[in-house]
Amino acid sequence: MNRTNNKISWVHLTSKLRQLFVAVLSVVFGISMYIFMNSFMNGVNNAQTDITFTSMAHIKVYNDLNGESPILLPPPLSSDTIQFVSNAREISYTEGIRNADEIKNILLSNKNIVAVTEQVNQNVFFRNGVAKLNGTLSGIDVTNEPRLFGTNDYMVEGDLTELDKRPDAIVLGSGLAVRLSAYTGDNITLTTSDGVTKIFRITGIIETGTGSIDKSRAMISIQSARQLLSKNKSYATEVLANVRDYNDARKIADEVKGDIKYKTEPWQEGNAQLESANTLRDIIAVAVSLTILIVAGFGIYNIMNMTVNEKMKEIAILKAMGFDGKDIIQIFLTQSIIIGLIGGFTGLITGFIISAIVDRIPFHIASFTTLPISYIPLDYVMALVFGLIITFIAGYLPAKKASEVDPVAILRG
After folding, report:
1. Which residues contact 223 (CB under 8 A, 6 or more apart)?
2. N or C, which terminus of the chain has less Cβ within 10 Å?
3. 183 and 256 share a domain?
4. Is the pLDDT of residue 293 over 50?
């Protein structure tokens, strides 16, 4: 009986190829758009994350001067007890981290931390001729900095390693270079907040894609920065670390903070908007994609419903011949499943082709040269599963209606 039911289903499908084509096309459209929307949104999220993490580490350790002061002494045992407490504000060394090497070793001892670097950041004035601007000067570890931020990938002119080769070398952000009307090979003057002035030679230009940073930041070697600010060889304003999965930064920061006396901050604390934006884009992509699939499901439902109405006499004859309601459901449900499978696999291929085409559209920002697309296998699996579920439901409802047909009433009518 099952073989007979399948043959009947196939005859129904092939008897009207135009309806079959329209039904399959609706599934293809729904699934291909699901694939493309999710691939594109995931690509945008990854691109946004990559651009953000070109200048922001997963975990940052710094001296939080505004943090809560620890309780140095327990409460007095009696009212006649005299306690002497020194004010933390009177300590001469109140800014930055003077034992950065020790902090680096603590961070590297955690197996989930993959890279660590240190920076010396200072607000300075940049001057080139009559142009004078304030901005941020970052003293970087030229060896470890690219391991965290892929800095070399964002160099549009020059070589980052020049910072280690000459003490007066400086790399400017692309926006800052434009504002100063400065070019590679030019000399610019830096003035610190303490009034120290030094001339640096521009050896490179960097463009991270984050406008606020590119317009205000320059980099020199960390040794030159310490010398400029008269700091010791282990001084840093920040120690930065990257973990294997940036989503685990909060948990890993909690693991190491007990051994570090400075503020240990995961990226989520100061950048919750990035996480929220990614989540919102994912919700929008899924909502739009599912809506397209549901609309495609309505198309299949309408076609199957029309088929049932057109085949009423045939259904009545089949029931009169001994086919029961389950057989009728199987006949029409098989048709919808075949439509779902053909449209599903065709939609996967079409969605991949659309994504591949969009992936080649020129789009220049930071280190990206084309529109961002992510190819995630789970998206393809979910698209096929959702497509089959919707086509199953769209086919079951008309099939259920067909199984309840009264053959006597139909044949008399």
Report:
1. 139, 167, 233
2. C
3. yes
4. yes
